[in-house]
Design a protein that fits this description.
This protein is about 45% helix and about 15% strand. A four-stranded parallel beta sheet has the order 1-6-5-2, with helices on both faces. A two-stranded antiparallel ribbon has the order 3-4. Helix 4 crosses helix 5, helix 5 packs parallel to helix 7 and helix 8 packs parallel to helix 9. It is elongated and about 75 Å long. It binds zinc ion (ZN).
């Protein structure tokens, strides 16, 4: 009886391994950056892509281009973006997979990377809370997730700092605003964000997390909403920066 059970167990394990191999063959784990097969030791993004991404090193310099873009628009401690956003490159593939293909793990993985950069930066010290830039609730329902939350979770894991996902609330959709001028967009944006339970962040140092920084209007509006409810310090980090 015991022998028969042993043979059956071996057979089942063999079958399971075969099934796993077959799944791997039919649906190989592909890199979200270059689309090539991942080795068993790699996850989400291949080693070559991770090495080859267009890193900015902005976390090392207070006067980097993201910070300069925001100077005079709102008070902040530090601002950075980890990568340069370039069309038709791996970074565009990664962002596309994160935003439109349901690949939340891309945000988490890149968030981990960003956490490593921030942990080693002299400019990002004493942060109390991480706050992701919110999507409009309707848009988040349609997508099923907010990509900035995924990035924030990845950063939070490395830094060991809590994430406040429902602190900022976006009130209306702003898609059509991309055609308007920066000033009008800013005016509209200011009305868009509200702070839920501001008591939680009064006198705290908040790190605001975004996916792709373009004009900085969204960050400016979110940051201003946070400053208006009485946070002590604001720092800013984006995944990528459009040049
Ligand atoms: Zn790759």
């Amino acid at each position: 009886m015991a022998v028969r059970f042993f043979i059956l167990t071996c057979f089942m394990q063999h079958l399971k391994r075969l099934a796993n191999d077959l799944v791997g063959l039919l649906f190989p784990n592909l890199c979200n950056g270059c689309g090539l097969s991942l080795y068993a030791t790699e996850k989400v993004i291949c080693t070559h892509c991770l090495y080859d991404l267009p890193y900015t090193d902005f976390h090392r310099y207070a006067d980097n281009r993201v910070a300069k873009q925001l100077w005079g628009r709102l008070p902040f401690e530090a601002a950075m973006a980890m990568l340069y956003f370039k069309k038709n490159t791996k970074i565009q593939n990664l962002i596309h997979n994160l935003k439109y293909k349901g690949k939340t793990e891309v945000g988490y993985k890149l968030g981990n990377l960003m956490g490593d950069k921030l942990a080693g930066s002299e400019l990002y010290k004493g942060i109390d809370y991480i706050v992701p830039v919110p999507l409009h609730p309707k848009k988040e329902r349609a997508r099923g997730y907010n990509q900035s939350n995924c990035i924030a979770d990845g950063v939070a894991e490395v830094l060991g700092i809590p994430v406040h996902k429902n602190l900022l609330v976006r009130k209306k959709i702003t898609e059509t605003q991309t055609r308007k001028s920066r000033f009008i967009r800013y005016e509209n944006m200011l009305a868009v964000f509200e702070v839920n339970e501001p008591g939680q962040v009064v006198n705290k140092h908040v790190l605001l997390i975004d996916d792709v920084i373009t004009t900085g209007a969204t960050l400016e509006a979110c940051g201003t909403a946070l400053i208006n409810v009485g946070i002590n310090k604001l720092s800013i980090a984006g995944l990528a920066f459009t040049q």
